[in-house]
Request: fold
Amino acid sequence: MTTTATLPGSPFIAYAAHSQGQHLHVEGVCLADLAREHGTPLFVYSKAAMLSALAAYQRGFAGRKAHICYAMKANSSLAVLQVFAQAGCGFDIVSGGELTRVLAAGGDPAKVIFSGVGKTRAEMQQALNTGIGCFNVESEAELDVLSDVATGLGVQAPVSLRVNPNVDAKTHPYISTGLKGNKFGISHERALQVYQHAASLPGLKVVGIDCHIGSQITETAPYLDAMDRILDLVAEVEAAGITIHHIDFGGGLGINYNGDKPPEADALWAQLLTKLDARGYGQRQLMIEPGRSLVGNAGVCLTEVVFTKPGEQKNFCIVDAAMNDLPRPAMYEAFHQIVPVAPRAGEVVTYDVVGPVCESGDWLGRDRQLVVQSGDVLAVLSAGAYCMSMASNYNTRGRAAEVLVDGDKAHLIRQRESAFDTFALEQLIGV
Ligand SMILES: *Cc1c(COP(=O)(O)O)cnc(C)c1O
Reply:
């Protein structure tokens, strides 16, 4: 494929020759064709890009005992889960609903780990009945309740404690999770005591330790710091007679949205494994929970320009995708590159690219230089993670359709929601 512009992210999403000039493709499929066939907004994912992101982790862990559990909240569409399940991945889940999805996609419950600060009794029961691999417990109260639920079912729940290593992942405050002020995890200082408590409870079996320090992390240092803190604790807990069978280092590795330069997964793990070896833990059972870095740059969202609206201070490019489809800009002021799928010649204009939702926060990109007319299709890049999985029906907008591309085949993996779908569970009251 020949590239006319440098796009962040995946080599599987690039401009390539087409009868009418250079058009953006996902693998062998032309995005302009897909937009015509399925309409917009439309998410399009590359299977090869997902497997290539996974392969970087697999290379990094070659020769080690390591489980990769895809953090499915990044993108929980069934066919995406199916791709990772078939590639041998386990799943990091944060709700009973996600567990139901894993099973529907053919995932192995024994390879599921259950994270999250607010697991309910019903979710604990569901997960115990399904036989998941491990509960990543985030508080002392959760330990007691989980032991009680497991005892009631006549089983023991495998548990890992999520320890808060108190390191700064240097990311956006909303996606930083490893600092003392965060709601996540058990404080490093209390961890030994909490392990002793866990070991004393009849319904629990201590199997591991875990941490997760944040998301969109683009530096190696926070991982190295967190690893040191976690290994200190493993030594302390094992000295107290409690065996830690696996060490789980969480997820959080960033992707390139706009010139970001996170380490490659294999390079990051080469460094982390050097430290692990030096400290004598290199042959332990390891786990990781990557989400964004497996899917973020494997997807785009196609959107059609509805109107252009020139203004005194700003020009607006109004598109048919909105904050309900792509919530990251409104939520975190996140940046996504926006490019035409079929570039045209003409005058470059600076636009704010905005959606039709009735909120000033409904913007997808600010001050973007584009040559566009209404009817053109734009691709919002790096939209594979935390977009569709966070989408809503705000403004009674049906959620977008999704396509998974595999080579030159395009599979529709989710139909577009109709307005009727959005209120199918609602009822009028009797008169
Ligand atoms: C969200 C989350 C992840 C994945 O984070 P990414 O930044 O998407 O890699 C992993 N573990 C836990 C506990 C999480 O909450």
Q: What stands out?
A: The mean pLDDT is 95. The chain has two domains: 13-46+296-422, 115-290.
